[in-house]
From TrEMBL:
Residues 181-329 form the Glycosyl transferase family domain. Signal peptide: none annotated. Residues 16-169 form the Glycosyltransferase subfamily 4-like N-terminal domain. GO terms for molecular function: glycosyltransferase activity. It comes from Amycolatopsis suaedae. CDD domains: GT4_MtfB-like. This is Glycosyltransferase family 1 protein. One of its GO terms (biological process) is lipopolysaccharide biosynthetic process. The lineage of its organism: Bacteria, Bacillati, Actinomycetota, Actinomycetes, Pseudonocardiales. Keywords: Glycosyltransferase, Transferase.
Length: 352
């Protein structure tokens, strides 16, 4: 019976982020859409606790701990995690597939090339080298948007075919978590790190009279939203940290508008999740965000706090505009499913 192994290491990362969401949802969708006779298994490095990766039951545990596994694959050691096929939801992947087996790798964005200043130097080097190798040796690369596919083609010598597979809408629990939120607020969702444009958003909020709610745990870069707010004289900034799915459903339900001012993205899952929840979206002109929103959101130039403030003010001040954006967003979000993303991966390994 053929087996697809999905590397689920991102689920055990200190900050799983949007890539962790992608890994979990794609893993479920791959299992749900498996061709007849195929099985799907998660695999992780050796951890004391693999609980977050137990989506399909206990994962396969590889013999190396996380750092050793990263180093081994970066050095090109041929440690195959088992199975007839492997999908890596991040660039952490074996150097190549053994003869008669297949390997696909998801490349989420080209940030290591376009905005290296928003990552650690080590992170830039690792991502560039692992993506470049996968582009030469994998059976296929999977990317979330045509924007990433186009930019990657200009930056990496590639022999592997590229398949575009957008993310899907996660079915969230019914809202109901107790979070003591403001009555009306601007919402931003995502890891708090430099490329998310949180500094620009907080500056923009200085001219608005509604609070800002940030949902997401701190990432690299040491950004302190409350210190930024104090510097810009902005009151009413609420930092929730990492939220559960139930809490995310609750904060989306109460949001007047979602702000996504990222400098760069590969997809922008919070934009899709907000549209699916009927929340108007104001986003930057990062190409992937423009592609995903498909005209349903308001677009502003990245790094432009004045333009962001103006767009947010217009949405907050017009129930008619917000209603039109809500309807457009719901329609656009219906185009994205995790099962469609899984079918793209299966097309690499099972010839669909």
């Amino acid at each position: 019976m053929p087996e697809l192994v999905v590397l689920a290491e991102q689920l055990l990362a200190p900050v799983p982020g949007g890539t962790g969401r992608y890994t979990a949802e794609l893993l479920r969708a791959l299992a749900a859409t498996a061709p007849e006779g195929w099985t799907v298994t998660a695999a992780v490095a050796r951890h004391a606790d693999t609980g977050p990766a137990e989506i399909l039951g206990a994962p396969r545990v590889l013999p190396l701990p996380p750092r050793a596994l990263v180093a081994a694959w970066q050095l090109g050691l041929p440690l195959w995690p088992g199975g007839d096929a492997v999908h890596a939801p991040t660039p952490l992947a074996p150097p190549r597939a053994p003869r008669g087996r297949t390997l696909s790798v998801t490349v989420h964005d080209t940030v290591p090339w376009t905005h290296p200043e928003t990552l650690t130097p080590r992170g830039v080097s690792w991502h560039r080298s692992m993506v470049a190798r996968a582009a030469r040796r994998a059976d296929a690369l999977v990317v979330p948007t045509a924007a990433v596919a186009d930019d990657l083609a200009a930056r990496v010598r590639r022999t592997a075919p590229v398949r575009v597979a957008g993310h899907g809408v996660t079915e969230l629990p019914a809202p109901g978590a107790e979070l003591d939120l403001p009555e009306r607020y601007v919402l931003a969702v995502g890891t708090i790190e430099p490329r998310k444009g949180i500094d620009v958003l907080i500056e923009a909020m200085g001219s608005l009279d509604v609070p800002l709610v940030l949902a997401g745990q701190p990432g690299w870069g040491g950004l302190d939203p409350l210190a930024l707010a104090a510097r810009h004289g902005v009151a009413g900034v609420r930092v929730l940290g990492r939220v559960t799915d139930a809490e995310l459903a609750t904060v989306l339900r109460g949001a007047a508008v979602l702000a996504a001012p990222s400098l760069a993205e590969g997809f922008g899952l919070p934009v899709l999740e907000a549209m699916a929840a009927g929340v108007p979206v104001v986003h930057s002109d990062a190409p992937a965000l423009v592609e995903v929103a498909g005209g349903a959101g308001r677009v502003v130039p990245a790094r432009d706090a004045d333009a962001l403030a103006t767009a947010l003010r217009e949405v907050l001040g017009s129930a008619e505009l917000a209603g039109r954006m809500r309807a457009a967003g719901l329609s656009r979000a219906a185009d994205f499913t995790w099962s469609s993303a899984a079918e793209v991966v299966w097309s690499v390994h099972a010839g669909r």
